[in-house]
Amino acid sequence: MMISPDTYVSQFKNRTLKQCIEERDELIRELKEFETDPQYEGMMLPSPLTQYNVTVKYLKALCDLIAEKVNQADPHYEPEILSTIEIRKAGITNTGAECVVNAANSYLQEGGGVCDMNPTASLKREDLENGEMLREAILRFSNERNEDNFFDVLELLRDSIVCVPCSAILSDQDQKAMEQLIKDAENDPDSLKGVEITSKDQIRLVPDILQNGDDFFFPVFSSAEEMGEYGQHFSCVETEFLHAIRLARNNEKKLKGIVVNAFSIPFILDAELFDVVEKTKTRIVQD
Questions:
Q1: Mind listing the pLDDT tens digit for each residue in 97-118?
Q2: Could you tell me how many helices (H) and strands (E) the chain has, helices first?
Q3: Of 54, 72, 82, 201, which has the highest C-beta tally within 10 A?
Q4: Dist. CA 67–CA 51, nearest whole Å
Q5: Cβ neighbours of residue 115 under 8 Å, at least 6 residues apart?
Q6: Beta-bridge partners for 168
Q7: CB 227 within 8 A of CB 164
Q8: pLDDT at residue 219 tops 80
């Protein structure tokens, strides 16, 4: 069973800075192993990808604790264990470094300059309209499961309009009226062709839920075409993916996550990563 990042990092509260850094390096090694050979096995639970994403959260929590210990001048701090500082004359965007530390202000507040540089390409709203860009990103991740492709999918999901399959639920009054209409046309069903029916009460659209074993998933699709024959049984409601996350959170079932394009090349976003997508910076630029 996987524990929460808070529970995980609590184990290191009273350990020395050196021990925390050793654990950090071990987490980084595990992440690199996955990125080199993901060994992904579909719906295995918890999937290797889920373990990977949880480990990323562990790493973040541990790095925050390490920073806290350094700032508090931990008495066990040993300067010699830090990496060597090397001075280079180079461009900050092509140094080959794993990260860039930008001491812009004491509040770590995002602003302009280096902090505002988005390494991913900017998009226009129309680039995502037909869902093809999202579908291709999922395909790339399916063929090569690495961190860059994974976060590319998350960034596109954040700004995408998706199709949510919903069942139309009539009120009891409207349902009875519909049944009576069908009964009256029993001997001449063709008479119903072209008949417009106005409901007296509000029609509820209830999202469908897919089940895999004991787990439930909220399905969305990059386009109506991706729904295939399955979509013939539902109404396709187009909505922002961020709204789909809210619908999934509020569903009466305890959902394992959201599955995108479940019947072609599926991509599963675990529920624990919903907040990651919500906090992802938009790539959409305003005209």
A1: 667 666 555 555 555 555 555 4
A2: 8, 7
A3: 54
A4: 24
A5: 102, 104
A6: 205
A7: no
A8: yes
